[in-house]
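Pipeline run #58 for the internal structure catalog. This entry was flagged by the ingest filter as a single-chain record with no existing model, so it goes straight to prediction. Upstream metadata was stripped on purpose; only the residue string is passed forward. Reviewer on rotation: M.T. Logging verbosity set to normal.
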Amino acid sequence: MIFAQPNDSTVFFLNIVAWVLCYYVCQVHKRGAISRSIDIGSFSGYGELNQALAHMFGMEGQPEDRQSIGRWKFIYQDYEGDFLFVGDDPWEEFVIIVKSIWILSPQEVLQPMFPGGDLT
């Protein structure tokens, strides 16, 4: 049996795969609660993630709704330092780029805690 020798592109691809597999864990922050680490790779999509976060932080019955004002908002920070709403990117991309998730109360959404002002 003949095996191909790895070339630069194969090694690069394998390094990316190894990096992705190692960094599925991210921090979840909510004011007044202890931050938690979760394995993003264990969820199949945003719906499952949102349910797990609501259960983890005792927010059942208070679903996150990006379209309405006065609701909890789930935002995330990527590895470039940008803040985006959870759900803005395709799930497969989100899993790779998420660094931390922030759960903001309706009052925190209106506070200018992030560059650029409020998140409404």
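catalog note: The mean pLDDT is 76.
catalog note: The chain has one domain: 25-110.
status: ready for reviewer M.T.
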